[in-house]
Every structure is written in C-alpha cells, then in structure tokens.
Specification:
By secondary structure, the chain is an alpha/beta fold. It is 28% helix and 24% strand. The protein has a single domain (30-265), classed as BirA Bifunctional Protein, domain 2 (2-Layer Sandwich), CATH 3.30.930.10. The protein has helices at 53-66, 135-152, 165-178, 226-234, 245-259, 262-265; strands at residues 42-51, 71-77, 81-84, 101-104, 112-114, 118-125, 157-159, 192-194, 197-207, 210-217, 238-241. An 8-stranded mixed sheet has the order 7-8-9-10-6-2-1-11. It is globular, with a radius of gyration of 17 Å. 46% of the residues are buried.
C-alpha cells in the first residue's frame, strides 16, 4: 500500500522541514524531531483468528468507530487474499477472484497480495491530540517506528524519500486511475525499504471519527518479535487487549452491508 487520500481524507499539509533528507536521499527523521514515541498510550490487538478479507476490513472500520484511544491491530487472513484501494477498478483484479479472497479497502492505494504478510491497522480517534497532525506526518512517523523495529532485530531498514509532500496525493490518484498496480512494485516517499526493495507500505482514511492507517509488511522474515517491537516503538505504554464483543458484532454488520457485497467490490 502507499499513501493515498480518498474523498474523505484530509488534504495533507506541507510540513516545515520536509526537504530534510540525508545524503542518500532517505528521510532524516532525527532532524525533524521524529525520534520520540508517537503515542502516550497504545492498545495492542494481536488478532490470531484468521478472518475473511471482508471481515478484516470490517473489524478495522469498527475499531475506529469504537476507539477512545490509539490502538494497533495485527492480523492474518483465512486464505490467500487480495485487497485493492478505494479508488481502484475491479476489472484490474477480477482475474484473481477465483484464486484469492478479493476485497476493496476503505483506504486508498493499489493492489496488495495477502497471505504470508503481516498486516496491521492503526486507529487514532479524533479526540487524541495526535490525530491533529497531517496525514503525511503520521504516515512517516508510523513508518519510522517500523524501521526502528526492523533495525532492532538486525535488519537494516530505511524510509524512502524523494517525493514532494504535496505531489503524493495527485501522483497516486493518477496511478490508480491509469491502471491497477502492485503497491510493492511501486515505492513512494516514506515507504519502508530493505536493500532498495519495498517491504512495507500503508494507506489511510480520515473521517470525523479519526484516522485509520492500514499497512502490510512482506517479503522478509516476520518472526523475532517484530510486531511487539513495532508496537513498543510507537509507545512505551502498550496495553495488550482482546477485541471486544461489541466490535466483532459491529464488524459483522459492516461486512454484510459493505465489504462482502458485490456493490462495494465492483464500485468502480
């Protein structure tokens, strides 16, 4: 996935100092003051119950509806799946529908293949001060935390730079409207890279309730406590939690009404 606002996402603001890059062209987060933990408190949902693609999307949306403080959810898929962005065209993924559980995301971005990846979602309620930051700033800071987690397990990860903040939304919308594309073949600014290869990207949606960021980590060894390290890089006050029954019930409603329907899948 790559950062793409949809029609309900706040337009990203230019961040002072956004041109601060080191000699390699990667973002210099130290100079931007992005080395501190992002959240004062973070709920951590390690969701080991592999769900359908529609249900996974619905749980993320339900978590945003019920959120009272920031949380991260790590999850798996019950079968090989494919998610594509809100602006994507079903015709670009139709050939995969017989072999994969295909779903249109609520967030933007391109085509992501799921199954062996570590998928996560972060919700930030509008009541949390962090939600006031620009979408691009949050995207970068979350990925910086992931880079730190990778470095902590001995993998040299970096955050890609080189694309102007204000040009990202237009560039990605153009890419999606032109054709379907594999997110992991098209790194953009602030995606996570190892050995010049994209291994993590995300997409966002901002609503009156807050912000949802969905991300996928793939193409690397996912053991060695990466998920736990990622959460701890986001906050020193992590609270392991179980998904509330109310969230599951609401998610089933959302899945049946939206994500599992042909009307949503073939929206474009």
């Amino acid at each position: 996935m790559s950062f793409t606002p949809d029609c309900h996402v706040e337009r990203s603001r230019h961040i002072p100092g956004s041109t601060h890059r080191n000699a390699t062209g990667f973002l210099d987060f130290a100079s931007l003051g992005m080395t501190e933990n992002l959240f004062a408190r973070l709920g951590v949902y390690q969701d080991d119950s592999a769900c359908s693609a529609a249900m996974n999307m619905a749980i993320d949306e339900a978590l945003l509806e019920y959120a009272t403080f920031p949380s991260i959810r790590f999850y798996r898929w019950h079968s090989p799946a494919l998610s594509f962005g809100y602006f994507g065209r079903f015709s670009d993924v139709a050939d995969h529908a017989s072999a994969r559980d295909v779903v249109r995301r609520w967030t933007g971005g391109g085509i992501v293949f799921h199954g062996d990846d570590l998928t996560y979602s972060i919700v930030i309620p509008v009541s949390d001060a962090v939600c006031n930051e620009s979408s691009m700033s949050l995207y970068e800071k979350i990925h910086r935390a992931l880079v730190n987690a990778f470095n902590g397990i001995g993998k040299r990860a970096v955050v890609a730079g080189g694309v102007d903040f204000r040009g990202i939304a237009a560039a990605m919308r153009t890419a999606v409207s032109a054709s379907g594309y594999n997110c992991f073949a098209n790194p953009v600014r602030a995606d996570v890279m190892i050995d010049s290869r994209k291994i993590a990207g995300s997409a966002q949606r901002r609503t009156r309730r807050g912000l949802l960021q969905q991300g996928s980590i793939q193409g690397v060894e996912l053991e060695n406590g990466l998920a736990e390290r990622f959460a701890e890089e986001l906050s020193t006050n992590c609270e392991p939690r179980s998904l509330p029954k109310a969230v599951h019930c609401r998610a089933r409603e959302i899945a049946a009404r939206k994500y599992a329907t042909d009307a949503w899948l073939r929206k474009r």
